[in-house]
Structures are given as C-alpha cells and as structure tokens.
Design a protein that fits this description.
two-stranded antiparallel ribbon, 6 helices, Trna Endonuclease, Chain: A, domain 1, about 180 residues, alpha+beta, homodimer
C-alpha cells in the first residue's frame, strides 16, 4: 500500500536508475498500485518462483534458510481489466538495435499462446533505447514463427508496438496502450 | 508436467493423506495440470510470496540462504476459463461443524471483492468433513457482512456451495462446479 516511507524509497530508486533505463519492474509495480488505488485494473506481479529446501523456526517467525530459484513457466504479471484477463511480462534490454529473445523461456511463449487462444490478452512490455513499448503476443509469436530469428529488431518493435507513455501517475500508462490496441 | 515420477509421488501423497482430508492443494494442482493438458482452462498457483534477504552464488546456481514468508495480499490461484478471469483460494479445515475465517486475511477478502466488481469470478474451494465445496465469493462476502461471525457453519456451506466431485482425472472437477454456478 501507499504509505509515505515506501513511496519515498521507490521514488529514490526511480531517480537513481532512470538514466540507465533500469527498474522497469519497479515502474510497472508502481503503475499497478496506481491502477489498484484508482480502481482501474487489478494486476499483480507473481512472486519469484522458488523451491524451498530448508526452513528454520525463529523466535518470531519461520525463516527460509535454503531455497533455489525455479524457471518460471508463466509470465510475471496477470490480472483483470474491464472484465478481460490480461497476462504479460516486462523485459528490458540495453541493446540499442534489437531485443534478444533469449530471456523469454520456451514455456513462457507457450503460455502466451495458450492465453490468447483462451480469449485473454497477452503481451510483452519492452524497454529499449529509453523507450517503452507494448508488443502484442500474437505479433511476437508470429515474428518468431516466420523469421526464426533470435532477436526482434528495434525498428520492428517501433513499427508494430504501441509506445507506452511515461508519466508521474501512473509511471507507465500501459493500460492506455491496452485500450488503444485491444479495446 | 506429468512425468511418471511426479505422478507417483503425488498419488502416494494423496493416498496417505486422504483420510484426514489433507493435501487439498496437491489435488487442485493436479487438476490444474489436467485442465492445462486437455486445453480446458489455464490456472496456476502463485508461488509462495517471500522476501529474499540473502543470496549466495554456488558453483552452478544462485542459492537463497535467507528469506522470509510474506502475508499474501491476493488469492493463491488465478487464470482463465472460457475467456473469463478466475481467481480463488483453497482452504481446508479439520473442524467438522464450521469453517473458521481466521485463515483468510483481510487483504484477501478485499481482493476477492475487487475481482468480482471488475467482472471476474472469485470463490473459495473449501474442504470440510471429507467433502469439497466451491463457495462463491459474493456469498462469502455477504455472509461476513451480514453476520459478522468468525466462521461459516458447515450447514451453510452445504446449502450455499456447490459440491465438487472427486474423480481420477481431474482429481477435483472444480471447473464443472464453475460451469454449474456461473456459466
């Protein structure tokens, strides 16, 4: 929730990282808080998938003392907007000419395809060249199928994606991009 | 995925625990695998929410060496079925006369309310007296609002919920209950 300490911390984080285009996740999380507060959409980031191996009982609470990261089989964010199921991931690259596909797992692409088949909205939010784009899942899947390439050129993203506006509230108005593209 | 080792393990687990009504989560996870394989619905359990405090770099992978459990602010399961957003949690009780509400957090009830307002389907799957019921979110929220009680009587659940059939595949056919109740 939006208590002062947290907002300040997030704000500082944003200020520190903005120049090198990092912290896309934080911007999206802040946008999701805004959408929730304003009752516009309900979107949450899924917790990091882990396998817990050891837990100890502390004096006040249980503490995980050994756990491993798991490869995610779904996308990081999902929720509901105007009655529609939405499901997406956020990726950023420092590469200026193309977005490498290596950081999207095969299972995640499969998940994206299924979601679309079942009537959901699925896409990637891609941060490249200090710009942020919403690129539709179908366009991504078709691109991979048709080209068999390992990266998506910046030019392709610019031409086929919807640029997401950076604002104060919300930080990244990706819901507006959804309105433009899908609704 | 459905490789033999895992199924066997889960099956044994089910056999061991079935008499005391445990392992509801495992039954739902197995049902979700079935729905996914049969392309009926896409529902995943969210990973356990944790705050990672320390990570070490092993020879092969990163190992979490200190992490804490966080209180969930959403429900454990969400996904899409026939184009509809669905969002629910699974709870079991050994209490035979009523289901105590203490293990549903205030934030989770708030989440449930929001999901319904936005056009999603939200409910609890409740295991009580060796039976499993789907109890609609609106009914739960109304019950709490109207009675201010700290538990829901078994009789109320039986009368107002939809009993979920236990089968081989899927283990718990909660999608059938959704069909009956909502679609």
């Amino acid at each position: 929730m939006n208590y002062p300490g947290k907002v300040k911390k997030s704000y500082n984080k944003y200020t520190n990282y903005s120049n090198r285009g990092m912290d896309l996740e934080d911007l999206i999380n802040q946008s999701n808080e805004y959408y929730l507060e304003e009752n516009i959409a309900i979107v949450h980031k899924k917790p990091t998938p882990i396998t817990i191996s050891e837990v100890k009982y502390g004096t006040k609470e249980r503490i995980i003392t050994k756990a491993y990261f798991r490869t995610p089989s779904t996308l990081d964010y999902n929720g509901i907007y105007r009655g529609k199921y939405i499901d997406f991931d956020a990726k950023e690259t420092l590469n200026k000419t193309s977005f490498p596909l290596q950081n999207i797992h095969e299972h995640q692409l499969e998940h994206m395809k299924r979601i679309i088949e079942h009537g959901g909205i699925s896409f990637l939010i891609i941060s490249i060249n200090s710009e942020v784009y919403l690129l539709d899942g179908n366009i991504i899947l078709d691109y991979i199928k048709n080209t068999n390439k390992k990266s998506i050129p910046y030019k392709f993203i610019k031409e086929n994606g919807i640029q997401i506006e950076k604002k104060i509230r919300p930080r990244l108005d990706y819901i507006k991009a959804i309105d433009n593209l899908y609704l």
